[in-house]
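Hey, resending since the last one bounced:
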Amino acid sequence: MKRNTLAFSIFVLCILSLFLTGCMSSMSTGSRDAKTVATGSAGGSNAQDANAGLERCDASLGTMAIFEDRSESWYRHLTSDLRLPSTIPVIRLLAQQSNCFVVVERGRAMKQMMEERELMESGEMRSGSNFGKGQMVAADYTVTPSITFSAKDTGGAGGVVGGLFGSVAGTLAGGFKSSDASTVLTMIENRSGVQLAAAEGSARNTDYSLLGGVFGSGAGGAAGAYGKTPEGKVIVAAFTDSMNNLIKAVKSYKAQTVKGGLGTGGQLGVQGSQTAASNAALEGVMTERKFNQTTSLYEYVVVVKDKSRSFYFSSPRKIPYKNDLIQFSLAGDKVDENSIKLIERKYLQKYWQ
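The structure tokens again:
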């Protein structure tokens, strides 16, 4: 009976080995069936052998620099523990292949660029080299990558298969390695410092490094070598997913608006702050309304009811409340003319004379 059980186990192991040798890994990103790895090349607006699932733009949206914060813990884990290189080359490739961004150099090659300019200034370069000032292109946007989660799980499949076919099969199934990665790309507008978009991406890579554990390193060399870098493969796939999601976001981009303008205090002021006061409804008298022939604008003066503050603003619209008591709100430090409401006619003549 024991011989029959052993023979059956060996038979099952052989079938599993033949099957899994033909499908060494499975990788998925946002879609289980999507193969999202950075492949091919890019030259200008042309991409060769790019991932078929990579989002593309018909026209570029601006220039992009990539900043990788090497003081972050994820970067130390990436380079020290996983022994993987910088993420910048992968992101640069994906960005150029998408044709959504023109990538500008702001990394280590910048030093070489500046050395070329120093050579020109020293007089060592041939005439006509054209490294004069005003040649470099500004970066409209900066994209910052980060890896928010990366882990591998080697325990689940071993217990299941081991329970069915015995300890040898359990050793075999222990070679299943499932690596997950979640990445984020954030994009800011360099002139304003405003974050325009942020996108998460994720991927899973299941590596079947089986044969080396049972039949020795000679038979399992290919699987063993591939099993050494599943983290790298899944991180690339996750960044591809992040780039796709970022491109989808900027393709349908609509600027956020803040009443009164960006950076003028916002709408969430605390009690006693200027912002809180500006959001509160005020009462005042429109004491002046003059038409300026030069600017073709009406110029107004509104004095608050207790006469403690005055506000000046202009508008092409004639507001019919001169000398009247009005209610109004502020946008920043200015009267929001769309908030003006009449309270009482001829208030100035009745009470301020």
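Residues 25-119+132-251 form one domain.

Sorry for the duplicate.
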